[in-house]
Amino acid sequence: MPYPLDAAAVRTWCGLALEALGRERERIDAINVYPVADGDTGTNLYLTLESAARAVEAAFDGHGSAGTAPGLGDAVGAMAHGALIGARGNSGTILAQLLRGMAQVLAAAPAGGEAGADALRRALRRAATAAYEAVAHPVEGTVLTVATAAAGAAERAAGEAAEVARAAHRGAAEALRATPGQLAVLGKAGVVDAGGCGLVALLGALADALSGEVGAAPVALRADGPLPEPAGCAAAGPEAGGGDPHAGGPAFEVIYLLEAGDAEVARLRARLDRLGDSLVVVGGDGLWHVHVHVDDAGAAVEAGIEAGRPYRIRITHFGAGGRAKEPALAARAVVAVVPGAGLAGLCVQAGATPVTVRPGEPPASGELVQAIRQARAREVMLLPNDPELRHTAAAAAEQARTEGVRVAVIPTRSAVQGLAALAVHEPGRSFDEDMVAMTAAAGATRYAELAVAEHRSWTMAGVCQAGDVLGLIDGDVAVIGPDLVRTATAVLDRMLSAGGELVTLVLGADVPDSLAERLQRHVRERHLAVDTVVYEGGEYAAPLLIGVE
Question: Rounded to two decimals, what is the model's pTM?
């Protein structure tokens, strides 16, 4: 007996889809050859959908505790949001956008109501369109082609929602069978598209949830022989799972969530498109999921920092699927730009070469090149610790490379991000792995600075008067206060409202000794399970620097 497309059906769909991908993920992994033959498409789809399913269950639990039931919009919105925040890899990111496209249509159903066949047709079409829009350079013979075929089959189908879903599943399966003839790398390896295979399983689960019947045959993977029936996903020849289509391609996969506006994301897309390939940016309404393959992982994270607030940063080295790792060299150093002798001393203790600067006197690229030379290392990690120094640091790195030094510019925007990066620096591991770890540590650290206003001015937080204490979070004035203590506590509360495990306080030379103690006590009393460390910044440092990891 057919079931309506309502919140309960979405819940059932999630459960059935998760079961299907759980059964088939290893075999989908085995046929993963595009865009990178890293054997993880099935796993990434499963983990993405697992996050979506958890979000749907949370929506039901939340409504249940209030004595109400979620509507279709609540359930499908939760599913899309869960996929967005938990998306893994290229395939999971596209899946999140497919679900978001469906949610944009289905969420219009009345509260507690259901969607009909026509709404499902429009939802599947919107899903395919949204997925194409998210991919910088769409390629046919992939999950995009399969999604489009599913939408077309749904639009041609008559009947209720269950029949439309079954038609979409059949159309997707037929399109999947054709993918080896559309994408050369699939034909050479003798496999169908792995991402498309996952989508077929997802649509089969939707059809089962709405029809109340199991109509999809188990996914079959064979190492040779003809392609299976439309319901299956299989290898077409003996080379299944083999090949290395991405050899010589970008070395890293970079993924992060990003809080940013539409205009900033448009600029980010253009910048990341120049840096690498396999670019997919999904989401909207201020929250985005960014996925790209690049050689310069630091630059990809820095682009996100310039666009907004990136977090949950994941950087993965492709190994054999991408460019080969170069062997680690014995001598590696860190050069860090720091404001204040106290911070310079911390750098020296950690084995880094500091470049101490005064406020308003940024170093020239020649000074950074000289510091790189003084480090006497064949590999150098350069920490600019200031967003205004990124071009200067890049120029210094380029000059040093012509002299035979391998240099990575870690995109640190504050001294506290530099401290976080320095804390995970390990000269004994490979250059690439060290760069990834330092970049991730810096990106996971939010930063703030307290400064005293010199004159009346307009700020992002309103009008300030001369002598007011300004709290800048991630570079923007967020708090205006009468003194250091009240401004600092307000800044800490705002930063920790988004979570955090460790607070770093760097005190300027002229702040009262009691400030650190009062702030540490405030954190202990207001924010459980958050540790605090305090450093003396010394002369030239800002009155207070704050880092939250």
Answer: 0.62
